[in-house]
């Protein structure tokens, strides 16, 4: 496990923010959960579960949820949210998921995690190991066009970005063009089934009209359904 998980220091603030934020509650979660589809009776792995917002939705939809996060504080918050309804543990996804057997889950969900990971292809391969044959992986990440508009430079630039988000949250994430994200997915043995550039959920217009207008014109995230 990482000695200093990135989100641990501001986990509580992140939970408060993500519960009803435009980008999380009214944009990424609806898009990812729509791609996941019907999970009733399925075993679902929540990779980088954070404060349990996706896990709670998956449990409510009838899934048996297992999950992990590198941040002990995030896992504590997630357990408080879902109780005994999900099996959650502290685990750095840069390491093999040794606590899961081959073909252990039907679906894996990895929302806004992959761009923080250094060993992305090994992680994607490990997820291919633990997802059963015929199962699915749904992931989301910042849209490369959004990164380009925000950071400047060239669209095809690749590299680590270090920034401060919200109220002093230090973050580090990887930037690369869409073709490189898809190449890594393919290298790990996954096949693209659907690519979604989300539109704002209807609820965003009432809660966050300015952001809804912005994200109605250009994509902020991209979500991939993989088989």
From TrEMBL:
<dbReference type="GO" id="GO:0008757">
    <property type="term" value="F:S-adenosylmethionine-dependent methyltransferase activity"/>
</dbReference>
<dbReference type="InterPro" id="IPR029063">
    <property type="entry name" value="SAM-dependent_MTases_sf"/>
</dbReference>
<protein>
    <submittedName>
        <fullName>Methyltransferase domain-containing protein</fullName>
    </submittedName>
</protein>
<keyword id="KW-0489">Methyltransferase</keyword>
<dbReference type="Pfam" id="PF08241">
    <property type="entry name" value="Methyltransf_11"/>
</dbReference>
<dbReference type="InterPro" id="IPR013216">
    <property type="entry name" value="Methyltransf_11"/>
</dbReference>
<dbReference type="GO" id="GO:0032259">
    <property type="term" value="P:methylation"/>
</dbReference>
<feature type="domain" description="Methyltransferase type 11">
    <location>
        <begin position="45"/>
        <end position="139"/>
    </location>
</feature>
<dbReference type="InterPro" id="IPR050508">
    <property type="entry name" value="Methyltransf_Superfamily"/>
</dbReference>
<keyword id="KW-0808">Transferase</keyword>
């Amino acid at each position: 496990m990482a000695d200093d998980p990135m989100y641990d220091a501001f986990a509580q603030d992140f939970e408060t923010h993500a519960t009803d934020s435009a980008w999380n509650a009214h944009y990424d979660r609806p898009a990812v959960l729509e791609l996941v589809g019907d999970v009733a009776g399925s075993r679902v792995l929540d990779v980088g579960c954070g404060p349990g917002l996706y896990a709670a939705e998956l449990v409510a939809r009838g899934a048996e949820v297992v999950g992990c996060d590198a941040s002990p504080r995030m896992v504590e918050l997630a357990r408080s949210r879902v109780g005994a309804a999900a099996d959650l543990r502290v685990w750095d996804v840069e390491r093999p998921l040794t606590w899961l057997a081959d073909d252990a889950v039907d679906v894996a969900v990895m929302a806004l995690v992959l761009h923080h990971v250094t060993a992305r292809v090994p992680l994607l391969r490990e997820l291919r190991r633990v997802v059963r044959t015929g199962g699915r992986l749904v992931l989301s990440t910042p849209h490369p066009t959004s990164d380009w508009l925000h950071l400047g430079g060239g669209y095809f630039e690749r590299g680590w970005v270090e920034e401060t988000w919200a109220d002093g949250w230090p973050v580090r994430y990887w930037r690369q063009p869409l073709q490189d994200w898809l190449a890594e997915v393919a290298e790990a043995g996954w096949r693209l089934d659907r690519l979604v550039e989300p539109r704002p959920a209807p609820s965003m217009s009432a809660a966050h009209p300015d952001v809804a207008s912005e994200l109605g014109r250009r994509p902020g995230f991209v979500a991939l359904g993989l088989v």
